[in-house]
Amino acid sequence: MKNTLHACIIDDKDDGESISFLLKKEFPEFEIDLHTKNVDFASDYLSRNSPDLLFVDIQLNNEQALETLSKLRTSSSPLIFITDSENTAISAIKKGITNCLLKPVTNLNFVLTVNKAMENFKKNRTFPFPKSRSKINLPTLQGFKRVNIDEIIRCEADSNYTSIYLLDKTKVMVSKTLHDFEKNLSGYNFFRIHHKHLINLEHLKEYIKGKGGQVVMTDNSVLDVSIRRKNEFLHKIF
Fold first, then answer.
1. Which residue of 98, 105, 217, 235 has the lowest C-beta tally within 10 Å?
2. Per-residue pLDDT tens for 57-98?
3. How many CA atoms lie within 13 Å of 27's alpha carbon, on the beta-carbon side?
4. pTM, 2 dp
5. Is 130 inside a domain boundary?
6. What are the residues whose beta carbons fall under 8 Å from the beta carbon of 101, sequence distance 6 or more?
7. What is the domain-level CATH number for residue 156?
């Protein structure tokens, strides 16, 4: 028998029961410890408890709600954000929430998203560098440049070199392959959208539909998403 896991559901609507029903049906090993509409109460609860999974379904139509979401994100629990609005999902993504479910929620998408959230949480906990580590060394001809990982917007392959584009609009050319950076940064919310491009999802600004589609980053660069990576990419951000 599987060990009991604990979930928390925060919703400011009346349809949170659908998530409760899906969780009990598809993941019977979970117990729901808290189901509330009061986000302040939930925030206080999470300051004292760490459920194994956190579902959040709140309207993000004002700064207070966005601030609340940011606070909930600091919880050590893996978080799944649920919404019926694509624009709201994009707002959540900009806040760093990469596990999102768009309504109407199907059984398949629910199962895939819960499994992904739990797998990513376990992977990040066992990442070779502690999550508190926020810097990386970029070797240069003169030595190395030490930068904050969250200041890396994107990495672009150039033969056996990689160009690193930073938040301060500088570019650093490093004599390592993009594959090396993909391995080292995958635990920090980076995703390889193309054989040439590895992006920091924290700096994703917009997605443009197409065969593979394109992304617009916070530095206004427009990058292609390969057709074969499109579904995985969209699943990761939604």
1. 235
2. 866 555 555 555 555 655 667 888 888 877 777 776 766 667
3. 23
4. 0.48
5. no
6. 80, 81, 82, 83, 109, 110, 113, 238
7. 2.40.50.1020
